[in-house]
């Protein structure tokens, strides 16, 4: 892997595009949920206003160093995920810092934010945060199991750990996609995808009606704004990985926008018509349905 | 209904049977016979449900009246059993061992009327008021309006009209 | 109206004692040490709130105010019967979300405290706590005649009658109860006030801290919390 300084502004530009795309996507999904409920819903620019407002709040309270680092970790989890994964295949500037073993790193970054959040929320001292985080970790762990298995299956199939190479192997037609060359692995990974995008029916951890809002109970003003930023970046970043590994990647921004939009809509559409699972129900669901499919995917390869 | 009353009347010194409507009747019982009567009603007559326990302040007579409403679900019959207590002493007998729900009612009565029920669990805990230092507010010698005016700030400009006079003024301004 | 019955006089001699677990005392630690603890001081931060200045450049402040006005996050805390009038605002018929109004479950993230209806002394204590935990700039809206002058609880022994004695109120919405339409109109008025930079309730609270605390303590006799809840 070669490193050139020009990659830094390129990666930041990618991040900027993804941030705006994510803000709009989140609003679109909320709008979708509102329309399903028969409401006009929020304006699409509402998320920008919320973000500005949270940064503009005058007072904030810190509960200690780790409390401050929680959102920072979380955000770096999302940004790291974007930085180390090629967003557009073959593009000179949206390649970011991808390198030979980035698949493993991406798997790690998916979890990194949640762990940082656990430490930060733990220090905030609010019992709801601690409960929320432990529930969240339990659920995310269960949901990520099929994903990890699917990724191993893919790694064995393509004999590489580089996302760029995996994408390269899928070029040249629809039927070269992993979706068609290894459908079982994709099915296993989609369990994880729906489970970790934090949308209904698997969003009981951060649901406002539950143990009030879970991990971010104590977070406010700029801390909350950081977490909101991550909330819009992270699903997009995750979708990029899925797109790269399973759906042939994207060779230009238009293809990127369409594929991410379609993938993003899967959990959103599932979400608006399903009530929430409790944590133990969703863990059971993933272990019962997701895990065997993942194991099957490994066996099939 | 009447037959239950007639059966228990002698043993528990019950007072006059007062029928309110089909399925609801009241009678008075002396304090020392209350427990036996409640036990009889609960275990022998099928009055398994304590609907409520409340009190009335008869300030002029110097009495508190406790009302125990018991319900027989199978036959849809409700009895209201009155017990008169001395207002100055204000002490009743706890029945929390007969119906656990009575504990909550007794806490409420202790707080709102100042009627003590020795032996009832958590009887001295606050029920809904916090940091109350005055007379128990449901006693009739507690003047709610005066207390409110002496305690809470008021916004000037509030006027009260006698509804009758007000409407008369409004509808017939010429005094027809 | 002021027909105070001078026969009945409020008992003002009696003080309510501090709860036992909050009194300063000496305890023996598991390893045998004797230490002095004072729960109210040990567990809580004692600093009084301070006045936060506006942004230095007016255009920035105006931009911030515009964002604040269009992103009102309400604390989901219903104090009285008015809470039931807020629920329809989430439904398709009124849908307050389209104006940027959201309900948040925790005071840390909320900017707007709706005092929805009568406020008993016991609830006032919680409302004060919730208000102080919110992050400035924060707004208070009093809902219904109960918060204005007592409403139908004008002679109640346990409800306050004038909310702005205890919390800095930015806006009252009159009615008993105001209907959801009135609430929406109230929100629009609040937005205008915020955009004009007139909603400085948090700073007003910090400036007149002694006044508010005195009023609060005069009705909440069972004061078992620090003077300012961070």
TrEMBL record, chain A:
Presence of keyword tRNA-binding: no
Superkingdom of source: Bacteria
Membrane-topology descriptor: Multi-pass membrane protein
Any Pfam family the entry gives: NADHdh
Localisation: Membrane
Parts of the chain that traverse the membrane: 6-29, 65-85, 97-121, 133-154, 174-194, 256-273
Keywords tagged on the record: Membrane, Transmembrane, Transmembrane helix
Keyword Membrane (UniProt): yes
A single GO cellular-component term on record: plasma membrane
Predominant cellular place of this UniProt entry's protein: membrane
Protein name from the UniProt record: Membrane bound protein complex subunit mbxM
Highest classification ranks of the organism: Bacteria, Pseudomonadati, Pseudomonadota, Alphaproteobacteria, Rhodobacterales
From TrEMBL, chain B:
Annotated region described as Disordered, given as residue ranges: 153-176
Gene Ontology molecular function terms on file: NADH dehydrogenase (ubiquinone) activity
NADH:ubiquinone oxidoreductase 30kDa subunit domain ranges (all copies): 28-144
Skewed-composition ranges (Basic and acidic residues): 155-168
SUPFAM superfamilies: Nqo5-like
Family: Belongs to the complex I 30 kDa subunit family.
Full protein name: NADH dehydrogenase subunit C
Originating species: Aliiruegeria lutimaris
TrEMBL record, chain C:
A GO CC term assigned to this protein in UniProt: respiratory chain complex I
GO molecular function, one term: metal ion binding
Pfam families, per the entry: Oxidored_q6
UniProt keyword annotation of Iron present: yes
A GO biological process held by the record: electron transport coupled proton transport
Domain NADH:ubiquinone oxidoreductase-like 20kDa subunit stretches: 80-189
Keywords tagged on the record: 4Fe-4S, Cell membrane, Iron, Iron-sulfur, Membrane, Metal-binding, NAD, Quinone, Ubiquinone
InterPro entries: NADH_UbQ_OxRdtase-like_20kDa, NADH_UQ_OxRdtase_20Kd_su
Cell membrane found in the keyword field: yes
Entry-linked SUPFAM superfamilies: HydA/Nqo6-like
Family to which the UniProt record says this protein belongs: Belongs to the complex I 20 kDa subunit family.
PANTHER family linked: NADH DEHYDROGENASE, NADH DEHYDROGENASE [UBIQUINONE] IRON-SULFUR PROTEIN 7, MITOCHONDRIAL
This protein's name: NADH-quinone oxidoreductase subunit B
Taxonomic source organism: Aliiruegeria lutimaris
